[in-house]
Here is the input.
Amino acid sequence: MRIVSLLPSATEIICAVGLEDQLVGVTHECDFPASARSLPKVTNTLIPTDASSAEIDQLVRDRLGGASALYTLDMEMLEQLRPDLIVTQALCDVCAVAEAEVKNAACMLPGAPAVLNLEPETLGDVLDCVRQVAQAAGVERRGREAVQALRARVDAVVTRAERAASRPRVALLEWLDPPFSTGHWNPELVRLAGGVDGLGQEGAKSRTLDWNEVVAWRPEVVLISCCGFTAERAMQDVALLERVPGWKRLPAVQQGRVWVTDGNAYFSRPGPRLVDSLELLAHVIHPELNPLPDWVMSPVRP
Here is the structure.
């Protein structure tokens, strides 16, 4: 089978169930595992790479408001790759090529490839997506084994969280200019890790926040994971926090419990590394119970 992935999380799922050798095309954003970087790219972005966070936010709002695409498909490359299966999503138009464009492209390609659309909103949905990809590619057993291994790690975090003496208030932020809460699976990860998220809602979309709302929540732990940004890129926006009224009086700030992590690798991609994200989150919330696994990148303090 020849598989094309139209989102980074799908690429990670495909490789996690042992189909890396059948992956023939990926997006311009697919960078994990490292071998995916050398595969042919079938998408392009219309978002300038040198734009500021505020400019990116405005560009996304303008294009989505006008039903304009953020990404484009390279039809010539798709035709050359001759995929049997295209894996995409319709959950977020900011994250991938629009679903309608993918379906139209599939109809135009020789052989009429199958299109698998993934729409996870919870951690359980993400694990189901692993099963769906494995089933579509005829490797159901590998899918079951991958899910069992991921579920065991989740259960281990939950068990440790149950031993915690407290459940700190957590602010998990996926953008800083303007501030955004996280959504979908991420508030669930906060709960599983032993914290309380008063800004995001499980299963719901992320939303724009007012800094007054963040300050009023008085988080005891702040984890900044800007969607699509490395920790180094996110650190460029951290300076604006100094200008937020009341920021320096937050318990998390006064206790040195503000962290920045790689939002390109963690929290934003609904794939196997969401479990890595859970383990990272558990570490910053309850470090005494959760040593950081060797395979997870350390978060940094601003």
Summary: The chain has two domains: 3-119, 162-285. Residues 140-161 form the longest helix (22 residues). The chain has a mean pLDDT of 92.
